[in-house]
UniProtKB/TrEMBL annotation:
Family per record: Belongs to the LDH2/MDH2 oxidoreductase family.
Highest taxon of source: Eukaryota
Any one GO molecular-function label of the UniProt entry: L-malate dehydrogenase (NAD+) activity
Keyword Kinase on entry: no
Annotated organism of origin: Blattamonas nauphoetae
Major enzyme class: oxidoreductase
InterPro entries: Mal/L-sulf/L-lact_DH-like_ah (IPR043144), Mal/L-sulf/L-lact_DH-like_NADP (IPR043143), Mal/L-sulfo/L-lacto_DH-like_sf (IPR036111), Malate/L-lactate_DH-like (IPR003767)
Keyword annotations from UniProtKB, A to Z: Oxidoreductase
Entry protein name: Malate dehydrogenase
Keyword Chaperone: no
Amino acid sequence: MTSYRIPFDILENFSRDVLIKIGVEPKHAAVVADILTESDRRGHETHGIGRLKPIYYDRVKKGILETAVKYDIVKETSTTAVIDAHNSLGHPISKIAMQMAIDKAKQHGLGMVVCRNSTHYGIAGYYTSMAAAQGCVGMCGTNARPSIPPTGAVENMLGTNPLAFAFPTDEDFDFNLDCATSIAQRGRIEQYVRENRPVPAGWVIDDKGQPCTDAQQVLTGLTKGTHALLPLGGAGEELGGYKGYGYATVVEVLSASLSQANFLRALYGTKPDGSAGPIELGHFFFAANVEAFTTLEEFKKSAGDIMRELRTAKKAHPEDRIYVAGEKECEAYHEQIKLGGVIIEPANQKAIDAMRAEQGLTQYVFPWDAKQDVPITVTEEKPNLKVCKYPEGAVQNMCLDKSMYVGDGCYHACSCHVRK
Ligand SMILES: NC(=O)c1ccc[n+]([C@@H]2O[C@H](COP(=O)([O-])OP(=O)(O)OC[C@H]3O[C@@H](n4cnc5c(N)ncnc54)[C@H](O)[C@@H]3O)[C@@H](O)[C@H]2O)c1
C-alpha cells in the first residue's frame, strides 16, 4: 500500500470531527485536534494523528477515558494552583493549566500549576511553546505508564516522562527542548515496527537485562512488562544511565507529589481483575515572566547569541550541522507546509478508515479511497503552474503524481492525474 501526504487542515478537521462524534465538546475536540496535528507539523509524528485511534478514541470507546472535560481547582495561591482533572482528556486540561501558570507569571513573576487525575497530554513542547510565545520561560512534564527501569533494575517503574523547556529568542523560532527522559519513547518503537526495522542496540533491555533489538518483540514486551526502554545514558552507570533515571524521577515527583497524583506502578491502568482501567496521571506546568528579570528584548538577544555561538563550534566533519533545540521542529514545519501536509502511512490509513466508517464521517475522502487513475484536463498552463479540471466522479482534490490534495484546480507543476 502507498503512503500519501495529506494537508494538515484536513487531518485536523477529521480528528476534531471524530472526537465530536464520540462525545467531546467541540471547543475541547478542537484543542486535541490542534495538538495532534501540531505534533505532525513539528515532525513529532509519533504523537500526531497516528495516536488518535490507539490512544484517545479507543480509550473513550472502552469507557476508560472521559469525553467531558471537567476539572476543579482544589487549591490556589497567587502563584500556584492544583487541578483535579477527573480523568478528562489531557490536552485541554493541560492547555488550561499552562495558561493559568502563564497568567500568574505575568502578574506575579512566576506561576506553577499541577494536575492530578489527568490523562495522556501528547507533546510536552506544545505547552512550553505557549509560555515562550507569551514572553515567558516555560517548563513542563508529565508522568506516564511505566516503561523504564531504575538503573540496576529490569522492572519498568517510571514512564518515559517527558520534560520540556522553552523560551523566546531573537532567532526565527523559540528554543524548545522537548523530549522523553528515556533514549526512545514508545511511539518511536511503533515507528520501527511499521518500518520493519530493528531498533538500535542500547535502547532496550529484556527482563534478564539483555539487549533486545527486535522492534515487534520490544513493543509486545513493553505491554507485558518483559522489556524496558532505557533511560537517557542507557543501561548501568558507565554511560551515565543514572542521570536519565534521575531526571525521570524528578519528573515523576513534580508530576505526582505536588498534585497528589498517581505514580509508578499505579499508572499501569490495570484493574484488580486484570482488565484495562483509566490511566490517571499527573502533570506540572511552570512559567517565569522574562520581564520580571530583564527586558524581553535583552533576553531574546542573549538567548539568540548563545544559540548562534553554539553553531560556531568546530565541527567533527565539515558536512555536519549544529542544531539547537526547536530548530528541527521549525524546519519540519516549513518543509511540510511546502510539501502539502504530513505522510499518512498504510497503518494509519486503516485507523482513519475505521474511525470514519464507525462514525459515519463519509464527507472525508482520502486519496487511498481511489480505485483507478484518470487523466485530468489542463485548462491553463503557465511556467511551473498548471490549472486543471477534474473529471466527473473523480475522488476530489487529489493529484496523484504528488500524492497531494489540491484545491479546485491543480496549482502546481505535474503531469496531472486523479483517481476514481
Ligand atoms: N505524553 C507523554 O507521555 C510523552 C512521553 C514521551 C515523549 N513524549 C513526547 O514525544 C515527543 C518526542 O520525544 P522524543 O524523546 O522522541 O524526542 P526526540 O528524541 O526526537 O528529541 C526532540 C528534541 O531534541 C531536539 N533535537 C533533536 N535533534 C537535535 C540536535 N541534533 N541538536 C539539538 N537538539 C536536537 C529537538 O529540537 C527537540 O527539542 C516529544 O514531544 C515529547 O514531549 C510524550
